[in-house]
Amino acid sequence: MFNFRGQKMKRLLLASVALSVATAASAADMQARPYAKAPPAAVVSPAYNWSGFYIGAMGGYGWDSGDASGGFGGGTIGYNWQFPGSQFVFGIEVDAAGASIKDSLTADIGGGVLATEEIKINSFGSVTGRAGFALDAALIYAKGGFAWANRKDSLSIPALGVSDSDSQSHTGYTIGGGLEYLFTPNWSAKAEYMYTSLGGETYNLAGDVFDSGTVDFHTIKVGVNYHFR
């Protein structure tokens, strides 16, 4: 008699073995696939680097707490340090300018005799450190350090034939900040505000000796710099 039951059992057994082998092979294939790690995040370096020497020209407007005001113009030289991958910029800067920041007062000293006194800052300059934060082509910075100015006091009394003047150099400090922008790889433009405070000096006008007191003034300047690469 044909053993139908035995043949059926054999077919089921063979099918089970075949399924087991296929499953094991599929699992082994899955385990053998290499695992690819995600690439590390790239460190983005600034597109611009501010390091190096630069020279420039600048000019602007100045005023004090009284009525003295006027323009000025001059030059700048400096050096910046910016480490690769860093947005912090440090530097040193020297500038000097000729100026006409002045005030004058005319008064009647008696009997219709007029006397005129003029106070004028002829020149000023500074040696400062700079610290800034670069946003690629833009640099926001603060600066401060040593400052000086030459001031001239003049007295004129035409009716008495009196004309005299005295000049003194004042020293002190300056502090402020600004914004500079590289509009080409080598050229930048800047706008800057500075406050300057200088110690007093003794003046002698026609025998009248007096102390000037503290000389304080503010400046707003614009300028262009050429950067050596």
Word description of this protein:
- The chain is mainly β and 229 residues long.
- It has a single domain (52-227), classed as Porin (Beta Barrel), CATH 2.40.160.
- The protein has one helix and ten strands; from the N terminus they run H-E-E-E-E-E-E-E-E-E-E.
- The chain has one helix spanning 4-32; strands spanning 52-64, 69-81, 88-108, 114-135, 138-157, 162-182, 187-198, 202-205, 208-211, 215-227.
- It has an eight-stranded antiparallel barrel.
- The protein is elongated, with a radius of gyration of 39 Å.
- It starts with a helix and ends with a strand.
- Could you tell me the CATH topology label: Porin
Q: What order do the helices and strands follow?
A: HEEEEEEEEEE
Structural class: mainly beta
Rg: 39 Å
Would you state the CATH class? Answer: Mainly Beta
Helix proportion of residues, in percent? 10-25%
The largest sheet, given as strand count, sense and whether it forms a barrel, is: 8 strands, antiparallel, barrel
* Shape label: elongated
| Low confidence ranges | 1-5, 17-25
What's the β-strand tally?
10
Separation of termini?
Answer: 102 Å
The largest sheet has its strands arranged as: 1-2-3-4-5-6-7-10
Strand percentage lies at over 45%
Q: Could you tell me the mean pLDDT? A: 86
Which terms summarize this structure?
single chain; 229 residues; mainly beta; Porin; 1 helix; 10 strands; 13% helix; 62% strand; elongated
Topology (elements, then pairings):
Blueprint: H1 4-32, E1 52-64, E2 69-81, E3 88-108, E4 114-135, E5 138-157, E6 162-182, E7 187-198, E8 202-205, E9 208-211, E10 215-227
Antiparallel strand pairs: 1-2, 1-10, 2-3, 3-4, 4-5, 5-6, 6-7, 7-10, 8-9
